[in-house]
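Q: Could you fold this chain for me?
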Amino acid sequence: MWFDVLGFLVCAVIIFFSGKKLSFYGDQIAEVTGMGKAWVGLILMAAVTSLPEMMVGISSSMVLESADLAVGDIIGSCAFNLGILTLMDLFTPKDKPLFQNVSQSHILAASFGIILIGMAGLGIYLNENFVLIPSIGLFALSFAVVYLISVRTIYRYQKVHPQIQPVSTTTSHLSLKKIILMYCIFALIIIVTAFALPHFAEGIAQKTGLGQTFVGTLFLAISTSLPEIAVSLAAVRIGSTDMAVGNLLGSNLFNPFILFLDDIFYTKGYLLKDASDSHIVSIFFVILMSCVAIIGVMFPQKEKKIFMAADTLVIFIFYTINMIILYQLSR
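A: Sure. Below is the predicted structure, expressed as structure tokens.
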């Protein structure tokens, strides 16, 4: 038991610090190449910080053959990413709540995220197996299609409605070759560490009796979302909340796409059909939290009445209720 807990914590710490470095060098790539930072934050950075979810999902699907851990990690990460918005709001000034400082263009990413996570819930709920090719369900394949459509749509929107680019507080003195090399090194560290993470999570699930659905949604999701935490808090400290919110919502856009990859490596059956129906509860709350985030961006609070704004407080309450319900279902 303690070996699994210790191994889990060590992996989590490695992912946190490596994710922070990986994000830094990803930002440097944008700086040196001249790519738009808004685009990099939504696509490149979101994919980078979702790298642990990808490796955990592949490991859970291919090695452990656990649909619950793979699906729970993705859906739980989407929920936790929205929960990070609450954490970020705690570090913003009282007269400048989180959503007051972000662009309304994030509404598009959040809306596509709702579509993707809703499709995942439908795939889990339906009894019929909609199969397009052997071992890959139609819903899983549709994640890839919708993700590519969303990326193109957001790109076209940003060309018509360009965002204010966050000001960089650092100037790179490294060559592009050196930056890419460091980027690849930290990416490799995260891949290896994230690949081992599900083994410790499975041990915790078995020895505590909490079940793979709860462990995957809570512990795995939090640990694989550590890069998002590192990036978000760093962005808030330099006053670039717009980039941080874009990274989180972009990660929620990329995470369902990972289910498509997981389904390819899951040869035991069909990923969504073999996952527990309890995941629908988390999907429901992810949709609720995303809707609150959209409302918050469209109608931002002028100031915080307490330690956080009303919108981020509601998101925190929804996340807490989600975890309580999952815990009760896992007992």
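A (continued): The first strand starts at residue 131 and ends at 133.
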